[in-house]
């Protein structure tokens, strides 16, 4: 009880004691009265003393017996926790006891030595719930965006409307023109009318054919060319250069000048040779063989330059069969002979390109092709069920046609080979217990030959390949050559599929490529994040052709995704922002591929290597830069001329990447042209395609006024001259190279006319200003060329020339061979093969048992 709370007792004078301090009394006095209750004589105020003077005469003993209120003393005791804590810990809640709320451990839990944890507050729970729901909504939106690109038109429109309703984003707003939705001009201001309704780098009209392909033989020979073909790029370049030569900006659009449209039709800017025939008139000796020395040179040329990147045959097995064929009187079946003739045709073609001293007549590769066609591609065989050898024959014929610049014909035969392979299930992973592991590996390589070849044709023609997503489960080839497959390191991954996936299939850049999202979460700033890859094993392998081919296949899968997700027909319905997003993701995959390369295959390192490693590096480098050019080509357009601000757009960055890739590609070859050396080291069957990609991209940038890299204009002119000089040097051995040189040289001269470039150092030779389907047979250098139109297909060739270096087949003497007609020769050589016209499987080795004489019957030709 305090002083204020004590009951007031009347004084003896009848007044009430004034214990309450006045307003003027200091607080310290009050405190003194409260905490020192025994010092009461000083508590009587002066006023009270004056008032009570009359009482001073009272006996002093009475004054001393006056009752004084004594406040209750405070005692030191355990404090009570009467305050309410924000939340109790989980242990106190469970025990239903009052929690002290101390952190990190409350008093009760500390005394009981119990685990103390406080649950989240409602604010934290609400925040996390909102974050979780936001993440779910974002996932649902991304899923809807993915579905919008694959569903039908009505469903896609519903999805876009829903996204616009609940989250207005410019990327998914409806567009008045569907054909312009996939162009880089989507984000141009409304009042900024582009100079060209179909931008240079646009994907517009990707779903349409802009000319009648069936109107003439030349048009049919060229066929349709898509947006990712350099033929289509050349068509645009010719329009741009024509306007520049007149001092006019922009380009002449289709439909504005019918005469110009006809002169710049696809077949007029096509440098390939599909308009020329590939057969020789008159009969050929069906079972004739070249001399052994010439055959060895052609066979070796094929194995050295082609087989490492197109392992369609089993090299050790077929080489043994080849030697046995020439060393004995063995009589193989027609399809094995067709394979051999196609190898000769490809080797002979290469021999003419490098001016090899052993090369035969200029028409010899056509003779080998004709034999193979009769042996394996006649009407009866085409209507028969395919086998493994038929797949190999068709693939080799398609490869030869590509090497001969007959890409339209190669396109058709390649599709036939792919269909035959899928019929036999070669595209699938084999779990057959009766098929040896070596045979499985050989078939896997056959499939990847078809896949990579079909992809290359798709890039060159701009057409959709016949290998769609999801049809291939065949694992990648192991990084060893065929003659190394019996070594312990190769057998380890060959026999253990789990280990094979861990060390090879799952560490490639294309792993899980089919699950790549169409629209990554971070948009065009997205980067690919995949699980950790253990590339230590594969990077420590010694460099060999098998390792090189593995990485070649890996990059091919990535580039095929570029075709599917950027150049496919359904991309016309996809807004440009989404196309940029896809390009960003694919760009990151290409960089992952490059970072995964072993040190021995790193083509950016400046090391002196032998011809084999140099050939590997050059092939991978050309493939890599070609992939980047294909990826960034849609962004290379005039749009950047309208770009405002200092920050470059994503499309501008990709356009710069495309131009730098073209520059790096041309930096791979010397400044001084040497066509023969290039054909010896480079992938000679497609080197013209790579050079035309780089040259066309650089010339297009010049035709735009160098809007992307204005500081590099002089350098681009120098690089364009370099590319044209190389095409000029290559034209001495190749008609297709001569056509390509004419197209590029004409374009550069038109640009120089309007932009005042100095071309005094450029080689000049008269040519037709407007390319046609046939050209003069005289070479541009004035020297005789080995390949001319009259030599190939002149009307005077009624019969095969006598100079064809044919020799009698093994087992037939020369005199008998000369006197035998073709019919007799066929009958004599097929007498023992009447029941089975093709008893040989080069992969399983079954043919070898029936191919060789009975004395060798017990020899094991299996793997």
Automatic annotation (TrEMBL):
Domain of life (superkingdom): Eukaryota
Biased composition (Polar residues): 173-184
Keyword tRNA-binding attached: no
Keyword tags: Coiled coil, DNA-binding, Metal-binding, Nucleus, Transcription, Transcription regulation
Region (Disordered): 1-30, 167-223
InterPro entries: Trans_reg_galc (IPR053230), XnlR_reg_dom (IPR007219), Zn2-C6_fun-type_DNA-bd_sf (IPR036864), Zn2Cys6_DnaBD (IPR001138)
Keyword Transcription regulation: yes
GO biological process, one term: DNA-templated transcription
SMART domains tied to this protein: Fungal_trans, GAL4
PROSITE patterns noted in UniProt: ZN2_CY6_FUNGAL_1, ZN2_CY6_FUNGAL_2
Gene Ontology MF terms: DNA binding; DNA-binding transcription factor activity, RNA polymerase II-specific; zinc ion binding
Coiled-coil stretches: 123-150
Domain (Zn(2)-C6 fungal-type): residue spans on this chain: 88-118
Comp. bias (Basic and acidic residues): 205-218
CDD domains given in the database record: fungal_TF_MHR, GAL4
PANTHER family for the chain: ZN(II)2CYS6 TRANSCRIPTION FACTOR (EUROFUNG), ZN(II)2CYS6 TRANSCRIPTION FACTOR (EUROFUNG)-RELATED
Protein name, per record: Zn(2)-C6 fungal-type domain-containing protein
Biological source species: Penicillium cf. griseofulvum
């Amino acid at each position: 009880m305090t002083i204020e709370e004590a009951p007031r007792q009347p004084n003896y004078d009848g007044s009430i004691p004034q214990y309450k301090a006045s307003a003027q009394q200091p607080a310290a006095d009050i405190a003194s009265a409260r905490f020192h209750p025994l010092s009461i004589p000083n508590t009587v105020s002066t006023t009270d003393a004056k008032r009570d003077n009359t009482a001073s005469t009272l006996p002093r003993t009475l004054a001393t017996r006056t009752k004084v209120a004594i406040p209750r003393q405070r005692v030191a005791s355990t404090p009570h926790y009467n305050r309410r804590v924000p939340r109790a810990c989980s242990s106190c809640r469970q025990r239903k006891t009052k929690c002290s709320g101390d952190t990190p451990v409350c008093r009760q839990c500390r005394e009981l030595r119990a685990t103390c944890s406080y649950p989240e507050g409602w604010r934290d729970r609400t925040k996390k719930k909102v974050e979780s729901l936001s993440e779910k909504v974002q996932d649902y939106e991304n899923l809807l965006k993915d579905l919008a690109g694959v569903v039908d038109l009505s469903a896609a429109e519903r999805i876009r409307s829903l996204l616009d309703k609940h989250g207005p984003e410019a990327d998914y707003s409806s567009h008045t023109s569907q054909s312009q939705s996939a162009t880089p001009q989507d984000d141009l201001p409304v009042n900024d009318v582009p100079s060209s309704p179909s931008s240079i780098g646009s994907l517009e009209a990707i779903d349409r054919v802009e000319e009648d392909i069936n109107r003439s033989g030349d048009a049919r020979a060229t066929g349709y060319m898509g947006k990712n073909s350099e033929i289509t790029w050349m068509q645009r370049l010719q329009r741009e250069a024509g306007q520049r030569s007149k001092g006019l900006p922009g380009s002449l659009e289709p439909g504005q000048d019918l005469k110009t449209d006809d002169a710049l039709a696809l077949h007029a800017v096509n440098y390939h040779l599909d308009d020329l025939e590939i057969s020789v008139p008159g009969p050929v000796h069906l079972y004739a063989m070249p001399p052994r020395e010439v055959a060895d040179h052609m066979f070796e040329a094929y194995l050295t330059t082609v087989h490492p990147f197109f392992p369609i045959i089993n090299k050790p097995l077929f080489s043994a069969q080849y030697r046995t064929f020439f060393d004995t009187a063995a009589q193989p079946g027609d399809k094995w002979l067709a394979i051999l003739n196609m190898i000769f045709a490809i080797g002979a073609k290469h021999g003419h390109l490098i001016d090899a001293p052993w090369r035969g007549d200029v028409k010899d590769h056509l003779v080998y092709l004709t034999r193979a066609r009769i042996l394996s591609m006649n009407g009866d065989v085409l209507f028969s069920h395919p086998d493994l050898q038929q797949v190999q024959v068709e693939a080799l014929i398609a490869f030869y046609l590509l090497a001969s610049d007959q890409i339209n014909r190669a396109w058709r035969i390649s599709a036939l080979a792919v269909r035959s392979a899928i019929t036999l299930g070669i595209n699938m992973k084999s779990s057959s217990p009766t098929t040896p592991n070596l045979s499985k590996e050989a078939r896997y390589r056959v499939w990847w030959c078809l896949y990579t070849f079909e992809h290359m044709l798709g890039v060159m023609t701009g057409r959709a390949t016949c290998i769609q997503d999801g049809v291939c489960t065949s694992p990648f080839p192991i990084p060893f050559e065929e003659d190394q497959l019996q070594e312990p390191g190769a057998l380890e991954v060959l026999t253990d599929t789990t280990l094979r996936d861990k060390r090879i299939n799952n560490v490639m850049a294309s792993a899980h490529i089919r699950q790549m999202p169409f629209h990554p979460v971070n948009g065009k700033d997205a980067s690919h994040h995949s699980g950790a890859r253990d590339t230590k094993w594969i990077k420590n392998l010694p460099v060999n052709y098998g390792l090189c081919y593995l990485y070649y296949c890996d990059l091919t899968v990535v580039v095929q995704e570029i075709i599917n997700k950027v150049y496919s027909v359904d991309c016309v319905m996809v807004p440009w922002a989404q196309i940029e997003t896809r390009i960003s993701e694919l760009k990151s995959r290409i960089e992952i591929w490059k970072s995964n390369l072993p040190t021995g295959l790193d083509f950016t390192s400046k090391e002196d290597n032998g011809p084999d490693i140099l050939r590997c590096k050059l092939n991978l480098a050309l493939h890599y830069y070609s992939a980047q050019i294909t990826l960034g080509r849609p962004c290379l357009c005039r749009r950047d001329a309208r770009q405002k601000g200092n920050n470059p757009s994503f499309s501008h960055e990709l356009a710069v990447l495309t131009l730098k890739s073209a520059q790096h590609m041309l930096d791979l070859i010397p400044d001084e042209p040497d066509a023969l050396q290039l054909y010896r080291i480079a992938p000679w069957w497609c080197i013209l395609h790579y050079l035309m990609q780089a040259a066309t991209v650089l010339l297009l940038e010049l035709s735009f006024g160098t809007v992307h890299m204005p500081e590099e204009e002089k350098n681009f002119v120098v690089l364009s001259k370099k590319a044209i000089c190389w095409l000029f040097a290559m034209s001495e051995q190749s008609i297709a190279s001569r056509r390509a040189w004419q197209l590029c040289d004409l374009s550069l001269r038109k640009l120089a006319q309007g932009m005042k470039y100095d071309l005094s150092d450029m080689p000049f030779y008269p040519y037709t200003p407007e390319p046609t389907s046939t050209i003069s047979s005289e070479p541009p250098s004035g020297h005789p060329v080995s390949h001319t139109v009259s030599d190939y297909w002149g009307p005077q060739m009624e019969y095969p020339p006598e100079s064809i270096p044919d020799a009698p087949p093994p087992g037939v003497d020369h005199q008998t061979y000369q006197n035998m007609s073709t019919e007799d020769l066929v009958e004599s050589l097929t007498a023992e093969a009447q029941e089975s016209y093709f008893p040989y499987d080069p992969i399983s080795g079954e043919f070898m048992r029936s191919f060789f004489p009975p004395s060798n019957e017990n020899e094991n030709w299996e793997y």
